[in-house]
């Protein structure tokens, strides 16, 4: 995806769909795991504007300190100002979140990330798993792209655009739709207990603005990867955006708990 995928406007547009999609039962498990730690220290990797913090902090309850990691200072400013609560404190860390080691996680109760794993390489996912397991820190990693879209109504071109988009997501050794499986394998190989859950967006008529913005980006990325689709794209978008489209965008949530 282009840099617009990380624009504050896009992150705000998707926040409600993200919150509805995340697996609440995994968050409930996290609350039980960190219940007796005071305060709970959470490192949110690739925090964006802080949607994970706003979603999870109220579910955890009690004193919490959120360490927000992102490369974009604009997003950190928003997150730092909006991840809040009566017992919630926040600090922002700008920099490369893929360079964390076990020593960096000292004192951390939980690592979280949202819509991040598919933007990493296999080496980076393996490194994240190793850091968490070596430090004994559980990880809640949500909304990883699964590479599967369901359109209602469906049409034959859907599969071509999906395959091209998935190819775009795998560019430059990025894992894209293979990321959740790679993360599960990495944590499991290191002895962690891993649970996964589906966390699909279910977009209907009441999310028309999000559906339209997502679809334009999805088609644009597909065409960038497979230029031969450029001739089909305008009519495809026009048909899809003419009204009545429902879409299920599949994601995966993962909870890894070191033994």
Report on this model:
- This protein is of the alpha/beta class.
- The protein has helices at residues 8-21, 24-34, 51-60, 73-82, 122-135, 157-169, 179-189, 208-225, 233-240; strands spanning 40-45, 64-70, 88-94, 110-114, 139-152, 193-198, 201-203, 246-257.
- Strand 2 (64-70), helix 4 and strand 3 form a beta-alpha-beta unit.
On the 0 to 100 scale, the average pLDDT is 95
Highest CATH level, the class of the domain at 3-147 and 174-200 and 251-257: Alpha Beta
Q: Roughly what fraction of the amino acids lie in strands?
A: 15-25%
Q: Enter the CATH topology name of the domain at 3-147 and 174-200 and 251-257.
A: Rossmann fold
Q: Residue share in helices?
A: 40-55%
Strands, count: 8
Distance between the termini: 36 Å
Give the low-pLDDT segments: none
Number of helices: 9
- CATH homologous superfamily classification of the domain at 3-147 and 174-200 and 251-257: Vaccinia Virus protein VP39
C-alpha Rg (nearest Å) = 18 Å
CATH architecture verdict of the domain at 3-147 and 174-200 and 251-257: 3-Layer(aba) Sandwich
Kindly name the structural category. Answer: alpha/beta
In this structure, how is the largest beta sheet organized?
8 strands, mixed
Question: What is the string of helix and strand elements?
Answer: HHEHEHEEHEHHEEHHE
From the spread of the alpha carbons, the general shape counts as globular
């Amino acid at each position: 995806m282009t840099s617009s995928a990380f624009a504050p406007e896009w992150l705000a547009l998707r926040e409600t769909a993200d919150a509805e999609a995340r697996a609440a039962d995994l968050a409930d498990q996290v609350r039980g795991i960190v219940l007796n730690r005071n305060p709970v220290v959470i490192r949110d990797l690739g925090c964006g504007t802080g949607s994970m913090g706003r979603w999870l902090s109220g579910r955890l309850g009690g004193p919490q300190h959120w360490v927000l990691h992102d490369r974009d200072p604009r997003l950190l400013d928003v997150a730092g100002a909006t991840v809040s609560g009566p017992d919630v404190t926040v600090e922002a860390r700008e920099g490369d979140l893929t360079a964390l080691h076990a020593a960096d996680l000292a004192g951390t109760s939980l690592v979280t990330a949202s819509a991040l794993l598919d933007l990493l390489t296999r080496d980076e996912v393996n490194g994240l798993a190793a850091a968490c397991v070596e430090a004994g820190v559980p990880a809640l990693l949500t909304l990883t792209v699964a590479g599967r879209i369901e359109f209602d109504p469906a049409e034959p071109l859907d599969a071509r655009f999906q395959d091209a988009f998935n190819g775009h997501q795998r560019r430059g050794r990025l894992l894209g739709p293979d990321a959740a499986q790679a993360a599960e394998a990495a944590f499991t190989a290191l002895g962690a207990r891993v649970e996964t859950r589906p966390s699909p967006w279910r977009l209907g008529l009441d999310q028309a603005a999000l559906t339209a913005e997502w679809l334009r980006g999805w088609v644009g990325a597909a065409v960038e990867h497979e230029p031969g689709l450029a001739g089909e794209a305008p009519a495809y978008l026009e048909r899809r955006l003419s009204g009545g489209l429902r879409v299920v965008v599949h994601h995966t949530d993962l909870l890894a708990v070191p033994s």
